[in-house]
Design a protein that fits this description.
seven-stranded antiparallel sheet, binds zinc ion, Diaminopimelate Epimerase, Chain A, domain 1, 413 residues, 3 domains
Length: 413
């Protein structure tokens, strides 16, 4: 027996509703940047056994967390919360409590059913604000197994099995065939039995029977540290999840013009169609770039070209409306038809690119210094160089500084 002067009476198992409860704040203490209140009795469950601590208010002050440390229950509020020693009115966030109690009871049923049907034990569990998980000691669980377990859990919910709490002295704990090792050094061990399904020592909050869970949905399984992490939701969360999925399915169904049950196949068909359109578009863009390149080289007097004879010839053109993507496609296509140095710009995007496919040619001496002199930024290699300006004026000035439309050596037969 510990020799603590005062302990907190734990009334949280019996108090589950929104009605207020009277207590006394017997001590206030700084805990980091928070204020911790210690009470003579509490209706708030402190975090433990995978279940988060309750929320609610003390004299209207919202609780940020409830934690148990060294046998003391700390009710944590903001550091500057207006709490004082003396009488206090406690109010539990009973909706949140109900939500976690349902999830916790569902977890017992799920772990017990998993063990009964597969022989694999649950080694840890977590009840989250969105989803809950159990870690099952097996590297992999098949989709079929998960469905079998889910259906067996649904049976147990329909059968409305009682959930019985046994308060048991440690010497009698071996009377039960427990799924988990009981805690050591306790005066009384709380054994939670889902009749016919599961029996484990547990200090969390539980529903009185399985029917109150309503529904349990297994969301999926992922491998985690050599084990199977099974995620699930229970209670009202299943209803909210179904509503959310229905809403989204409705949107997809209207857009795809297929029944909700066929949206998977509808999306697949749409993706195939989109993929084909993308390939068609790419082909069209390339064809347009080839004809754009031919036209440009004609304007420059460089077409039909013969790479070798055009080495060293520089041609510069600025495209008004075309984006740099289109300019790059034209440049790449033109590069295959001519060995000239091509400096092409998109005025709209204030960017340019220089190309040359002739061997031994280097575009950098032609453009790099001129670009930097106008505050442009860019880089590249001997055959390809890209740059950008922060204003259309700088791009224009850069262009004017380049030798314009250098005459082409007459094509020889
Ligand atoms: Zn429990």
């Amino acid at each position: 027996m510990e020799t603590r002067q005062e302990t907190t009476e734990r009334a949280y198992y019996d108090h589950t509703g929104p009605e207020p409860a009277a207590a006394r704040i017997r001590e206030l203490r700084k805990e980091g940047d928070k204020l911790a209140a210690l009470l003579d009795r509490t209706i708030f469950y402190p975090e433990g056994g995978g279940q988060p601590g309750d929320r609610g208010t003390i004299n209207g002050v919202p609780l940020l967390d409830v934690q148990e440390r060294d046998g003391e229950i700390l009710h944590l509020a903001a550091g500057d919360a207006p709490l004082a020693k003396g009488p206090a009115e406690l109010r539990l966030d009973s909706r949140r409590r109900r939500d976690f109690t349902a999830a916790h009871t569902a977890q017992h049923l799920l772990s017990g059913t998993m063990f009964r049907l597969t022989g694999f034990p649950t080694v840890s569990m977590r009840l989250g604000d969105e989803i809950c998980t159990i870690d099952v000691d097996v590297p992999m669980l098949s989709a079929e197994t998960l469905i079998t377990v889910e259906e067996a859990v649904a049976d147990a919910i329909e059968e409305n099995r009682p959930v019985i709490i046994h308060l048991c002295p440690p010497e009698r704990v071996s009377d039960f065939s427990l799924r988990k090792v009981p805690p050591q050094g306790e005066e009384v061990i709380r054994v939670v039995e889902v009749e016919g399904y599961d029996i484990v020592p547990c200090c969390g909050t539980h529903l009185a029977s399985t029917g109150a869970i309503g529904m349990l949905r297994i969301l999926g399984m992922e491998k985690h540290k050599g084990m199977s992490r099974v995620s699930f939701i229970a209670g009202r969360r299943v209803l909210r999840d179904s509503r959310m999925l229905r809403e989204n399915a409705g949107i997809a169904s209207r857009i795809l013009k297929v029944p909700a049950a066929e949206i998977g196949r509808g999306v697949q068909a749409l993706m195939e169609k989109t993929g084909q359109l993308e390939r068609d578009l790419k082909n069209l863009e390339e064809a347009a770039a080839r004809s754009g390149a031919e036209e440009m080289l004609r304007r420059a007097g460089l077409y039909p070209g013969n790479g070798e004879r055009q080495d060293g010839t520089l041609y510069a053109e600025s495209f008004g409306d075309a984006g740099i993507g289109e300019v790059l496609r034209i440049g790449r296509a033109a590069q295959k038809m001519s060995g000239a140095v091509l400096v092409l710009a998109s005025e709209r995007d204030m960017k340019f690119a220089a190309f040359c496919s002739a061997k031994k040619a280097d575009v950098r001496p032609l453009v790099q210094k001129a670009m930097e002199a106008r505050g442009g930024k860019g880089g590249g290699g001997p055959g390809f160089f890209q740059g950008a300006f922060s204003s259309a004026g700088d791009l224009r000035a850069f262009f004017e500084s380049l030798p314009r439309n250098v005459p082409v050596a007459p094509a020889k037969e």
